[in-house]
Amino acid sequence: MSDKATLIIDGQKYDFDMITGTENERCIDIQSLRDTTGCITMDPGFANTGSCYSSITYVDGAKGILRYRGYPIEEIAEKASFVEAAYLILYGELPKADQLKAFSARLKEHAPIHTNLEHHFSGFPKSAPPMAILSAMLNLISCFHPEVLEVPTTGAEFDRTASLLLSKVRTIAAFAYRMASGKPINHPNPHLTYCGNFLHMMFSDPYQEYEVSPVVDRALNLFLVLHADHEQNCSTSTVRVVGSSRANLFSSVAAGVCALWGPLHGGANAAVIKMLEDIRQSGRPASYYIDRAKDKNDPFRLMGFGHRVYKNFDPRSIILKKQVYNLLEALKLDDQLLEIALQLEEATLKDDYFISRNLYPNVDFYSGILLRAIGIPLNMYTVMFAIGRMPGWIANWKELHDHKLRISRPRQIYTGSRARTFVPMTER
Ligand code: CMC
Fold first, then answer.
1. For this structure, is 364 an active site residue?
2. Which domains does the chain have, with CATH numbers?
């Protein structure tokens, strides 16, 4: 294999180094391109652009492979809790028993939020989208922990900041839901697991403590594990871009939450359920919606289908689909939306439009049905994704600083007016 790539511009040859990753993925190093040739590259949406080296997550879209720190997602989803997976993503290795104990203890210690921070929740209107509240409150935490405004310089500082964020995001999410529903907040209970504690903060009432069923606890763990990282997706890239200006971790992940909110990214999980509900209520066949998705004059897209990287199948969606069946069966639930989802999937698998464009169910297609079965309200679905993605955002932010990356600052090709003279108001 060649270790140089040659580019010819106006008859002149330029050589660039080839870079090869652990899994033999190849890349042309064009860092010197502008200085040597005077040209830049054009890649809107960054589909062909590597922005960093990373040792956190590997995705092979053609083969449907996803690995966290080398471990296949199928194994992690089956064998690890979310806390264990978060440790793996943050620190690079599966935790030993004492490491997991210490990590869990830190998460418990940091679960409560400052009382003054609690008051802020009541300032939001009842209709405030929880994603807006989550982003605002994550940014706000830094006001109560000024020490996190700095990039951590020691391992202990990073341990503290990472667990503080990982733990408080869950408390903020649950408080946002309780406040918006006009219900009293439930403070974290240190005797519960990470997921159990979240469910308690969401669903316990003064007259009845929420009983955490092991089946639901497991399903929620699996949901969070599957969302824990996904290399340079839109929100993680946002966290890196914001972090590259040396903005603190909290403001960087708050920006990540905003990027995740959009329906083409994490917001798709709620959009899928809205779409399935529409189909159910309309009584129209799946084919009507498939035809709309194929119609280039109709902005409608089949939500939960397609992926920038996966061009075969999304392994997370396969694991989720199985888990949805198990959960519904264990809870003795029958969800009509699952039937509709299955009909849509079956129809697309036979349809040339979807086959030729490699459009398959992605992680968001079945996740909403799982969240519905747990009792999570629709406007919290993308918040759940954000809680899951937190380890990935933190690990990428740390890696950015470990690699001492430059500030993110893409270039452009200007297509506006040439230089012209200012026109006074009377002459316009
Ligand atoms: N329904 C109908 N057509 C689609 C869909 C869809 N869901 N997704 C892509 N296409 C078509 C698109 O119109 C285009 O067709 P053509 O080549 O004829 O112009 C072709 O497939 C390629 O699509 P693209 O928009 O260029 O692909 P992209 O890589 O820029 O976008 C995507 C990827 C995920 C944003 C897109 O597939 C999409 O909008 N899907 C629906 C929203 C969704 O489910 N998002 C969740 C993504 S996975 C988890 C996450 O990131 O949060």
1. yes
2. 4-59 (2.20.28), 60-407 (1.10.580.10)
